[in-house]
Design a protein that fits this description.
By secondary structure, this protein is an alpha+beta fold. Helices cover 25% and strands 26% of the residues.
Amino acid sequence: CALPISLIRKYVEEYGVKYVALDYVGKLTAAGGSRVEQIGAVSSMIQRVAAETGIIMIVLAQMNRALEHRQVFIPTMSDLKETGQIEQDADVILFNVWPWKLDSTKDPNEFLVFLSKNRNREIRRPVIKMRFNGARQMFVEDGIVGDATLQAGFTGTLWNPDAAVKDSEEF
């Protein structure tokens, strides 16, 4: 599936589209030899289209499996699958972690959002705790987990929110 650049431009011009979500970048293809080269070309194309049209591109990408085997389950930009080009091109990189997936005794409605990159801006809130509201099919902010307390909040590969201090004054 190639990136439908002409279709994106048409929708921006004709309908005033402000946001485009791509689910997910791994399904897109481009000319090039290896998969890494193709994903790199797609990533650069996404950045170029966003700059040319002035829209916000929300792009989902898969993480590699190395994260699952680490002592501490904190995602980093190098966990993006298949290329470092996504890391280089992106203005903002967020990782969503579902602690319940790692430990079924955890609250299944709790999620953590890690802000790993925020181009040209400081990262004031590196980890945001979210709650899923199933009745409304939405996430709502449930607190901030400070960067200094991140390590204390992870035991092995499991998130332990009781061990992390939640202090919004820190950030």
